[in-house]
Amino acid sequence: MFRASLSSLLSNPRLRSLRPLPPFPFFAPSLPPILSFNASSSTPPTQDPHEEALNEDGAEDLRPSVKISIDRSGAYNPPEHSHVSSSDSELVRHLKSIIKFRGGPISVAEYMEEVLTNPNCGYYMNQDVFGSGGDFITSPEVSQMFGEMIGVWSMCLWEQMGRPEKVNLVELGPGRGTLMTDLIRGSSKNEKFTKSLHIHMVECSPTLQKIQYSTLKCVDEDSPCENTKQTVSTLSGATVSWHAALEQVPTGLPAIIIAHEFYDALPVHQFQKASRGWCEKMVDIAEDSSSFQFVLSPKPTSATLLYLIKRYKWASIEELNKLNQIEVCPKAMELTHTIAQRISSDGGGALIIDYGHNGIVSDSLQAIRNHKFVHILDNPGSADLSAYVDFAAIRHAADEASDNVTVHGPISQSQLLGFLGINFRAEALLQNCDEAQAESLRTGYWRLVGDGEAPFWEGPDEQTPIGMGTRYQAMAIVNKKQGVPVPFQQ
Ligand SMILES: C[S@@+](CC[C@H](N)C(=O)[O-])C[C@H]1O[C@@H](n2cnc3c(N)ncnc32)[C@H](O)[C@@H]1O
């Protein structure tokens, strides 16, 4: 009975039609009056005459039953003001010492980078942050179908590349390694493809590297080169290596590069229009020294001159006129440049999937702890920070980097997965499901492709899955020789 009802869901024309994106949740761009706010106190501190403290409004194994938890694409929600005082963690001490040493505040980008990836105490470095026991959930953790569909995309690109004998399959920010595992399992029947793969995981966190090693069922063995060892995934026999950055992945082989929820973790600068012109939002130590607060730079910073002007160049007049705040992610532009040049010289393509907007992002930086939005400055290092991805900037950066690449999309995640065949995969998986697995499958399916609350949800209201299907966007950058990648021809 359930299968019949799921079949009708899967054949629902809503999933097949290409729908326009819903309005992007721009976040109150109007400038607030100059008031103060910090993460742990509601008492206005005395202001430095030069800095304005800002008002912050502001294989067929079915995954075990899917837990309903927050994905990171949710619209920024001003959190409750936290009045809990925190004892200084190693990261807080480190941030304060940078600010004191500099003799002034640091940029939001520097704050974000330290908080997420400081080698000793960054958020990602020493813990597993995913799933119901962590802070947020991502698509590969929702359902095996996600990684399997990315496998379909990779195989299609490999076919378009002329089935090369050796390929670098690179994943940027692989989290627990779930996507890569499902990709390999899902494509195992195409032996020529799996045999061609050299897997490269670009991951900064030693803790997550270990988890990825175990998820991919890796072993260390003697390599054909004398006196050296290599790591091999027993799932497919492919070699696996880890790198801190894409630049460290060896060149010379065509590359398939996957970046799922990687760009959103790259540090953003935030700029705000003030009466004196565009200034940069900065992070300073609060007056009472116990926490941090946002301040506005007294004049344009060097980042304002460099990055804001660059982003301005790519924007339309209409876009610019309505903006009082702009986020710019120079690391995203640099990474795109590296990807485009790699693909230009080695061949292949990249698939970028993330939540974002096909144009300038205004003010999206958000913090999530234990599946709830919290203040960005509250207890740094204990919550994930992420920002919406500016896909238009990625397109411009790739176009600038090389004439040998083409950029496709963005299209919605729902469109991407739909055209890659997720409905057929769901139907196939249902053939071997018990009732509990079928329910888990259905929940996962709707979370991946739904565009809001799942319309035919029959479970408890409080567990209604919220879809990631339209908030997440997919963009491909490919070598011109490969033609238009699947499914961007649609
Ligand atoms: C939001 S998680 C996404 C994980 C995974 N792609 C998924 O969808 O489940 C971001 C991943 O990127 C890694 N990461 C973040 N910043 C990085 C950086 N600058 N260099 C390398 N890895 C980074 C994190 O450790 C983590 O594995």
UniProtKB/TrEMBL annotation:
UniProt-annotated location(s): Mitochondrion
EC number of the protein: 2.1.1.320
Recorded catalytic activity of this chain's protein: L-arginyl-[protein] + 2 S-adenosyl-L-methionine = N(omega),N(omega)'-dimethyl-L-arginyl-[protein] + 2 S-adenosyl-L-homocysteine + 2 H(+)
Cell inner membrane is among the record's keywords: no
GO biological process: one example: methylation
Molecular function GO labels: protein-arginine omega-N symmetric methyltransferase activity
Keywords: Methyltransferase, Mitochondrion, Transferase, Transit peptide
GO CC, alphabetical: mitochondrion
Name of the top EC class for this enzyme: transferase
InterPro entries listed in its UniProt record: NDUFAF7, NDUFAF7_sf, SAM-dependent_MTases_sf
Annotated region described as Disordered, given as residue ranges: 37-62
Sequence similarity: Belongs to the NDUFAF7 family.
Described function: Arginine methyltransferase involved in the assembly or stability of mitochondrial NADH:ubiquinone oxidoreductase complex (complex I). Acts by mediating symmetric dimethylation of 'Arg-118' of NDUFS2 after it assembles into the complex I, stabilizing the early intermediate complex.
Protein name from the UniProt record: Protein arginine methyltransferase NDUFAF7
Organism name: Acorus gramineus (Dwarf sweet flag)
